[in-house]
Write a structure and sequence with these properties.
Elements lengths: L14 E8 L7 H14 L4 E5 L7 H4 L9 E2 L3 E2 L2 E3 L2 E5 L14 H14 L5 E7 L6 H9 L4 E6 L3 H16 L4 E6 L4 E2 L6 E2 L6 H9 L3 E4 L4 H8 L4 H4 L4 H19 L13
Parallel strand pairs: 1-7, 1-8, 2-6, 2-7, 8-9, 9-12
Antiparallel strand pairs: 3-4, 5-6, 10-11
Length: 277
């Protein structure tokens, strides 16, 4: 019999691949990366959704320009998801006031994630990206153990403190037998707007070296760029506002690599039992 935190297979029967986007440390740009990679995957022709699993600090509503969206009930047990820029979105931020704090213990937050998974009327999706909160706690374990994940993508920055936490994330997913589809190094470099000099503010190639050490694919390096921050704050991600810029092409390249890795390991995709041990 399923426990309250498990996700019935029927709840996700319309979703072909579920990919967790994770980071061991906060502030590395994981949500920004999740949104833009999801949009890039959509532009490749796939049907894409994104689930904001950061129960304590949801940011997907702001980043997709969906701050006023409220789900509607479908019957007694389902609710609608939002739609923006061609992708489907769900977030705890749609259900609580943006100024309210979710003062919940870990199991309650994990239960909220399961409820979002269970009770959303997901359309047919090729990919559902799950934007996880930082760390390796209850929410991450609930998703890893109770949802049939295709794999996980780790987002980090080049500095040592972020890489140390990224390694913890890699180890966590390996312990629960979730394949690591790759590692993304965000804030990898900054291009000076005045002189054009490329500066590695947080260090050089830390993400690439970590990927090599743990034998996981290195998906790409993304810049520290004020235009990305401004676009996300306005709810107009680069993939929507400026789809042909170098930054957007970098996200598109990452999405293509993820799609290729998923195809290559389809026969080995994780299949998690939905019954209690």
């Amino acid at each position: 019999m399923n426990n309250q935190n498990s996700v019935p297979s029927s709840a996700l029967s319309n979703v072909k691949n579920i990919i967790a986007i994770a980071s061991g440390k906060g502030g590395v740009g994981k949500s920004t990366t999740s949104v833009n990679v999801a949009l890039a995957m959509s532009k490749l022709g796939y049907k894409v959704g994104i689930l904001d699993a950061d129960i304590y600090g949801p940011s997907i509503p702001l980043m997709l320009g969906l701050e006023t969206f409220k789900p509607e009930a479908i019957g007694e047990k389902k609710m609608t998801a939002a739609s923006a820029h061609g992708i489907t979105a769900q977030s705890i931020g749609f259900l609580i006031d943006s100024e309210d704090a979710a003062v919940w213990r870990g199991p309650m937050a994990a239960g909220a994630l399961s409820q979002l998974m269970n009770e959303t009327a997901w359309p047919e999706l090729d990919y559902l990206f799950v934007d996880l909160p930082p760390g390796t706690g209850d929410i991450q374990l609930t998703l890893s153990q109770k949802v049939p994940l295709t794999g996980a993508v780790i987002v980090t920055t080049p500095q040592d403190i972020a890489l140390a936490d990224a390694r913890k994330g890699i180890n966590m997913f390996e312990k629960v037998n979730v394949p690591i589809l790759g590692l993304i190094e965000n804030m990898s470099f900054h291009i000076c707007s005045s002189c054009g000099n490329k500066e590695h503010i947080f260090g050089t190639d830390g993400g690439r070296r970590t990927a090599e050490k743990y034998q996981v694919p290195f998906l790409g390096a993304l810049p520290l760029n004020v235009e990305i921050r401004e676009a996300m704050d306005l709810g107009k991600p680069p993939l929507v506002a400026t789809p042909d810029t170098e930054i957007s092409l970098l996200y598109s390249g990452i999405a293509e690599k993820i799609a290729n890795f998923v195809v290559d390991q389809t026969t080995d995709s994780v299949s998690i039992s939905f019954t209690d041990e």
